[in-house]
Amino acid sequence: MDRKIGGWAAGMALALALAGAAQAQGPVVAIMGATVFDGTGDEPHVANVVIRDGRIAEVGPKVKAPKGAKVIQAKGLALTPGFFDLHTHWTPGGEPNLTPAIASAYVRAGVTTVDDFHEQPESFEPRRRWVAGLASPHVNFTARMSTPGGHGADWADENTTRWVNTPQAARTEVQGLLPYKPDLIKAFADGWRYGVASDNTSMNLETLSALVDEAHKHGLKVLTHTVTVDRGKIAARAKVDVIAHSLQDREVDQETIELMKAGGTAYAPTLAVYEPGKDGRALQPDNPIHQQSIRKFGYALHNVKALHDAGVLVALGTDAGMPGTPHGVSTLHEMELLVKAGLSPKAALMAGTANSARAIGVIEDRGTIEPGKRADLVLIKGEPWVNISDVRNTHEVFIDGKLVFGPGVSLPAANSAVAMPAIPAKAKIDDFEAARSSLDTLRLDNMDGGLDRSVQISQTIARDGGEGRILSLSARMAEKDDTHAGVIIPLSRGSVEPVDASAFKGVRFEVRGDGGAYEFDVNTVGGGWTQEITAGPEWKTIEVPFSALKPGEGRGGAKGPWTAKDLQQVEFGGTRGPGETLWLEVDNVSFY
Fold first, then answer.
1. pLDDT at position 3, please?
2. Reduced to 3 states, what is the DSSP secondary structure of residue 32?
3. Backbone angles phi, psi at 124, to 5 degrees
4. Rounded CA gap, 218 and 60, in Å?
5. In Å, what is the CA distance from 150 to each residue of 39, 154, 159?
6. pLDDT at position 15, please?
C-alpha cells in the first residue's frame, strides 16, 4: 500500500470526505459521452461519469444520469484526471506572483494538485485557510531541509529551511517540523550549480538516509533537489520517494537505474525550468553558459527516456515560479517536453496524473477516474493521448466535484484579491519576554543571501539591571559589498494575514547599538517601507511615525501609497562594510 503524505494528511483525507458528504458539495453531476482517459492504463474509451458528494460515484458506458443530476453533454471531448505538478514555488518573484492569481492559473490549466516548495512552516496553517477560500488546486505544503551552505539555505533563515549535516540533526529537525503538519518534505541534497557557478554543499548518504527514515516513520514522503547522476545514486540508496529535478551532468548508467528501481524512487524531471531559450531570448552559440544549458538539457531529455524505458516511475514537476517558468501553463508544457524526450503522449498523461499521485502517496484518493476517487477532472477539446498539445485546450475543470472553470463559470471574488482580509493590529508587538513575539509569531533572521552569507546571531538576553529580556543581534558581515543583518518580527502567523494598523500613528521601541546607522523597516503587502535610525551605547526610545517612512529601494520597495492597512512585518537591522561587525539591542516594540 502506498504511504500517505503526512500523518496529518492521511487523517484529513477521511475527514474531508466525510465533510464533503455532510455539506453535499453541489448537485449530482453526470458527464455523458466523454472519451475517458482514466489513468489506470486502459485505453481511452467512451463512458459516462457520475459525481456525487465530491467523489466519482459511477463510471461506465451504460451508466445513466441520476434523476435531478446536472447533466454535461461531453460527446467529442476528452475527460482526464486532474493534472499534478509536484514541484512549484508560490513565490512573490514568480509569474503570476500573488497567491490567488497563482491558484487561478492552475485552475485554468486543469492542474488540481500541486506541491508548494516555497513556504516557511509558520505559514502553513494560515495559508491552508487562505487556499480553502479560493478556487484552487489542492496544495501540499512542503517543509524544506538543506545543509549549511547548501542550495535552499542560501536565502531566508533556518526556520524557513532547516539546516542539517548529521543523521542526528536530520532526525531532530524532521521531528521539529511535525507540529506544523507538513504534507511533504523537500531535501536540498545536491549542491551542483550546473557548472556555471560555485557549488553549494551537498547532503551525505548517512544524513539523507536518516532524514528519509525519520520522515517515513511519520508518514511523510521525501522529495529531493538532486541534479547529478552520482547524487541520484545517493538519493536512491537513501530511498528518497521522488527526485524532483533532472539528473543532467551526464547520461544515467545502469547502476543508477537499478538503484532507483530498488529504492522505489520516482523521477519528476522539471524539464520546463531547464529548457534553453524558454524566456524568448535567442540562444548564443558562443556563450559558454548557453552551451552548458544546451548540453545539460540534452542529458535531461535522454535520462528521462532511459529511466522511463527501464521502468522507473516518471512523475510531473516543473519548478514553476522560477524565472521563465510560469504557473499553470508550464505544467502543460512539461507534458509536451516529456513527449519531446521520447515518451508517448499516453505516458506523458500518466506522468501528469496517476504516476504523480502514486509518487506522493495519494493514488487511493485521486489521480485516476474510478469510483470512490476524488472528482478532480478535466474536460479537454481534442485527443491528448494522440496529440499531447491538446492538453492546452482546457474546456472545463472540476475540483472535488465542483465545476471551477469553464464556459459561464466565474472564479470567486477571492481569486482576484491580492491578500487575505486584514486583521486589526494589536498595540504590543514584542517585549521579548518569550521565545515567540508578543503576537505569538516566530522571529526570523534576515541576513543577505548567497554562498558567502553574513553570519549573525539573534537571541533574547537579560536586560542590564534585570529589567526583563531584550532582543540582541550580533553579526559579522560577509566579504562583499552588499551585506545585511536583521531580525524580522511577523505581525501575524507566517506573515500571511495582513494587519490593519490605521488606528495607530507609528511604531515605538527602545534601542541601543554600536553607534552606527540602522534600518527600521515595515513590510506590507504593497512592498517595503524604511526609516534610518541611529543608536549608541545608551538606551533611548524612538518613535517612527508612519508619515516618516519612505518606500524601500529595489524590487521589494513599495510602489503605491502608504495606507497602514496591509502590514505584514517589522524589521530591525543594518549593513556594514565587508568583514565589519554590527550589534544592536531592541526592547518594547509597539504601535502608538
1. 33
2. strand
3. -60, -50
4. 38
5. 37, 7, 15
6. 42
Distances (CA, A) of 184 to 168, 338, 485: 20, 25, 30
Note the pLDDT of residue 14: 40
In 292-422, DSSP assigns E strands to 377-381, 394-399, 402-405
> Which residues lie closer than 8 Å to 325 by C-beta, 6 or more apart?
95, 272, 273, 278, 318, 319
**Distance separating alpha carbons of residues 506 and 452, to the nearest angstrom:** 35
Q: What is the mean pLDDT of each run of 10 residues along the chain (592 residues)?
A: 39 42 66 98 98 98 97 98 98 94 98 98 98 98 97 92 98 98 98 90 98 98 98 98 97 98 98 88 77 94 98 98 97 98 98 98 98 98 98 98 97 96 98 98 96 96 92 98 96 98 98 97 96 97 98 87 97 97 98 98
Measured between alpha carbons, how far is 320 from 270 in angstroms, rounded to an integer? 9
Q: Write the single-letter amino acid at 433.
A: E
The three-state DSSP-derived secondary structure of 471-506 is EEEEEECCCCCCCCEEEEEECCHHHCCCEECCCCCE
What value, to the nearest 5°, has the Cα angle with vertex 578 and ends 160 and 149?
Answer: 35
Enumerate the β-bridge partners of residue 29.
Answer: 51, 70
Q: What are phi and psi of 35, to 5 degrees?
A: -90, 115
- The x, y and z cell numbers of residue 245, run together, are 529535478
475: left (phi over 0), alpha (psi -120 to 50) or beta: beta
Report residue 212 as a C-alpha cell. 528519509
Side chain identity, residue 592: Y
With left for phi above 0 and alpha for psi between -120 and 50, is residue 441 left, alpha or beta?
beta
What is the pLDDT at residue 213?
98
Assess whether the previous peptide bond of 96 is cis (omega < 30° from 0). yes
Q: Which helix (H) or strand (E) holds 76?
A: none
33, three cell numbers: 459521452
CA angle 386, 391, 392 (to 5 degrees): 130
Distance in angstroms (rounded) separating the CA atoms of residues 288 and 269: 23
Q: Compute the Cα dihedral for 456, 321, 354, 224 and give only its sign.
A: negative
Are 76 and 390 within 8 A, CB to CB?
A: no
DSSP 206-234: HHHHHHHHHHHHTT-EEEEE--SHHHHHH
319: left (phi over 0), alpha (psi -120 to 50) or beta: left
